[in-house]
Amino acid sequence: MISYDDLRQLQQVPSGPDACTLSLYVNINQANQSNLNRGFITAVENMFRQMSEGQQNHRERLEAECRRVLDFLANYTAGGKGLVIFSDSSRDLWWQRDLQVEVPTGARWTPHPWVRPLLELIEEHDHFAVVLLDKQRARILTVDATGVTQQAEIESEVANRHQATGTDHIWSQSHMERNHTNQVVGHVKRVVEELSTIVDRTRVSRVIIGGPVEAASILVGELPKRLEQMVTGAISVPIDANTERLMEEVRAVQQRYEQEDESRLVESMITAAHKGDRAVLGITDTLEAIQQQRIYCMMVARDYHIEGKECDSCHVLVVDGQEKCSFCGGKLEAAPDLINRASYRVLEQSGKVQIISGAAAGKLERIGVGAVLRF
Q: CA 52, CA 195: separation in Å to the nearest integer?
């Protein structure tokens, strides 16, 4: 699974003035003709060659990292649709994940890992739990960009309803109905207990429920408040649904929820900023808030890109054309992907970065970026 904890793990790697990381995202989907017969490796080799030819600083180190990655790919078997690697031998960094979703092939040689595509993946494929249940069985799975993982399977002994006829059997029928209902509720409570444990262990933030209406309704009624608040939707799939069917249904629910959630978040941020209430809009004020370590959540429109500069001494980020840092007088170096640098800084400060897409991104069209502040 991939989460913000993974990104924070990357930030714990020691940094320095000469630090450089090779970041690589590769589309390895074998359904694409160009990726067959390990064609994706040829694409990476060509990309590395172009990077090396255009590199002026640390060229030998870049070529060494490229060889390290290519040596790995030589023995790599594509098992998903995407691959991400961060490599820096000087800091003993090797971070690799297989993905069950496609990513555009691309690479960067930068002082910090190129995390923006990973942030987009986390936002698009949030880590959540799926509960599929009927009156006797249940499966609890976790889903994110790396795929589907079954966490638990539960089976309970629940007596079937028996149809009784005649007045002599009325009491017996009623008794069997109550017994059946109590056993179903007991089964559901077992599911809730296991779900709670899995949520705590895997730190999922959302829950989707699937199964027959009666069993699903009982489950919702038995959920404690904290889990009930995490439920984002329901899907109509059988308990033994295969991964492809499950993912199709889950993604539809997830997309609807995220679009609604992002719209609410952006509207709330814009309203708060206009009132001067712990929110800012625009790149200049957002960078100032980063420097003051005030950001709780930075929101960036998906297609927003901007160039800027970074101080080689105090690492302040700016967008204006000045030559020296106004904070410490240090030299300002070019930062072609300013949002990546800013995102990394926010995550270093234990903040969140949310990539906004769809209709919600239209609300950020003029400003591109904004932030909700801690204080």
A: 49
